[in-house]
Amino acid sequence: MDKNIKIYIAILVFVLALILVADRDQPKPIDWSPTYSVNDKIPLGLYVFDKEIHGFLKPQKLEKIVTETPYEFLDSKYDEDTLVENYSIKGTILNISEANNIDNQSMTEIFYFVSHGNNAFLSMREFPSAILDSLKLRTNVNFGLPDSNSTWLANKKVSSKTYHLKEGVGDDYFLKIDTLNTTVLGYQSYVPKQKHVNFIKVAYKSGYFYLHTQPAAFSNFHLLKKDHYQYAENVLSYLPKGDVFWYTKGINDEKISQSPLRYIFSQPALKWAWYLSLIGILIFIIFNAKRKQRIVPILKPLPNLTIDFTKTIGNLYYQEGDHDNIIDKKIIYFLERIRNEYLLDTTKLDDDFIKKLHLKSGKDETDIRELVFLINEHRKSYHGSLEEDLIRINNAIEKVLN
């Protein structure tokens, strides 16, 4: 392994070890996210409420709406027969959430469900506009204020106690109500000597809406804190006895991730270790992106033995004084090259051939004419050629070909 790689790995391991040691004794930060999910054990989850709901409500039947919307659930229970035209179920639909998590179509179906003599209990800091408009209500929503207020019930016979709630609550209340159809059930005070309505009962045709602005009262934090569970119990005591249909699948009730890295990302120390590992790998790639390879030795090309052979044969002819043979071979080589390069017929070396070669090759016509003359003279000669003839023809060929 390369020395630099060992250094990088050692540094990365050292940094990861420091992080793990530093975070080992650090308390896990509290997650105050208002999920209101039955699966969450965080302060503003509904895990405890889910376990204790039978004690709070004592319903004849409790059914959770988990995989459907309220519209899908209620619509499947409606008998459209003209002789019936009613729901096959009776009771109260329940929803607890930070803000509106019910779609418009479902809200319309809930209104229809209540109009048939049923009830709806909604505890949320921000209600759907359909609720406010239809029931002639107006609310005050303050998400940015400190989490604390005092709250109590209007009917002292139910409870005369004031509960001081902190964490997850706010100064959310009803500014305007329809006094002809609305019964005030509870109040709250964010500032001393002020009283605002936070819990009401609104008649709607043959049924009732129970609206509550402090969903944190049903959270894990408050159900486990002192006597706050009594307040939640007293609020729910207003609901009529009967079946309860709890819509638990809200916008914050997401499915648990199935990612293999889920646990790593859930732990701050492991999460940062994962990020630093990725950063270390990236740095390693950047600094080692240049390809490393052993030096390739330079190999000399093999000598052209054909050329050496030709030179040897040529020297042999020259030493033997066989000039005619050498001239003949040079002429054959010259004509073969003319045929291949310029596609000219070399059968007859005349003026027509000279002009065509001049036009195609661009060589001097005088040089071409002189070479053609020497070739023709050599072919006509019956006596042996001299060394001077070989030199003249060779020079003439070189001028035309080069």
Largest beta sheet: what is the strand line-up? 1-13-4-5-12-11-10-7-8
The unreliable regions are 251-256
Structural class: alpha/beta
H/E element sequence: HHEHEEEHEHEEEEEEEHHEHHHHHHH
Main sheet: strands, sense, barrel: 9 strands, mixed
Number of helical segments?
Answer: 14
Kindly report the CATH topology of the largest domain: Rossmann fold
The level 1 CATH classification of the largest domain is Alpha Beta
CATH-level-2 architecture of the largest domain: 3-Layer(aba) Sandwich
Instruction: Compute the CA-based radius of gyration.
Output: 50 Å
- How much of the residues is beta strand, in percent? 15-25%
Percent helix among the residues? 40-55%
- N-to-C span: 58 Å
Overall tally of domains = 3
**Mass-distribution shape:** elongated
Could you tell me the mean pLDDT? Answer: 85
Number of strands: 13
In quaternary terms, these chains amount to single chain
